[in-house]
Amino acid sequence: MNVALLKQWRHSLVVTTLLAGALSMTACQPKQETEPSLEEGISEEQAVPMSAEPAEPSEVVVDAPASVVEDDTVATVNSGVTQMSYLCSPELEVEATYKDTDQVVLATAKGSVTLTKTNDASNPEVFEVATAIDSSEGFVQWRVAHQDRETGVMRTAGTDTANVTTYECKKTQS
């Protein structure tokens, strides 16, 4: 019985040695590296060189008195005043004059009113006043959002503050 057991162990040892040799021989063989596929190239992040040059300013500042540019649709004067026109739905035209960063004057066919900014955020900016657009009792709220104050929402009410009219406004192109 010992002889049969030794033959079986010898057979297992020979087979194991052959497999180990075959694995080490294939591991030593030089393999050609494949090119990365298109999907791998797309998913990898690529380094983008950064320029040390400052970007060009996106706002154009007009060095002129306000009286020269007051009829422009959009004008930025050194005094911090920006004028913009909006077309609203339901139909209403709004001329907004932003003074510095904390006030806006809204002028419509119904009247004009000066609102004060009530939040520290820049998107949206919220301006409010406790009088109606025609200077009677009520309130006006003006919210502008997006880059360059492209859209706005005006909420107004008269003496009945539960009856609020909402206007959705878009800046008109100059």
Contiguous helical run count: 3
Counting copies of identical and different chains, the oligomeric state is single chain
Task: Please compute the radius of gyration using only Cα atoms.
Answer: 37 Å
Look at the structure and give the mean pLDDT: 77
**Poorly predicted spans:** none
In total, how many beta strands? 9
**Largest β sheet strand count, sense and barrel closure:** 8 strands, antiparallel, barrel
Helix content: 10-25%
Shape: rod-shaped
- The end-to-end span amounts to 104 Å
Structural class: alpha+beta
Q: State which percent range the strand residues make up.
A: 35-45%
H/E element order: HHHEEEEEEEEE
Side by side, the strands of the main sheet go: 2-3-4-5-6-7-8-9
How does this model look, in words?
- It is a single chain.
- With 174 residues, the protein is an alpha+beta fold.
- The chain has three helices and nine strands; from the N terminus they run H-H-H-E-E-E-E-E-E-E-E-E.
- The chain has an eight-stranded antiparallel beta barrel with strand order 2-3-4-5-6-7-8-9.
- It is rod-shaped, with a radius of gyration of 37 Å.
- The chain starts with a helix and ends with a strand.
- The mean pLDDT is 77.
How does the SSE layout of this entry go?
Layout lengths: L1 H27 L9 H6 L22 H4 L5 E2 L4 E9 L2 E8 L3 E6 L2 E7 L7 E7 L5 E9 L5 E7 L7 E7 L3
Antiparallel strand pairs: 1-2, 2-3, 2-9, 3-4, 4-5, 5-6, 6-7, 7-8, 8-9
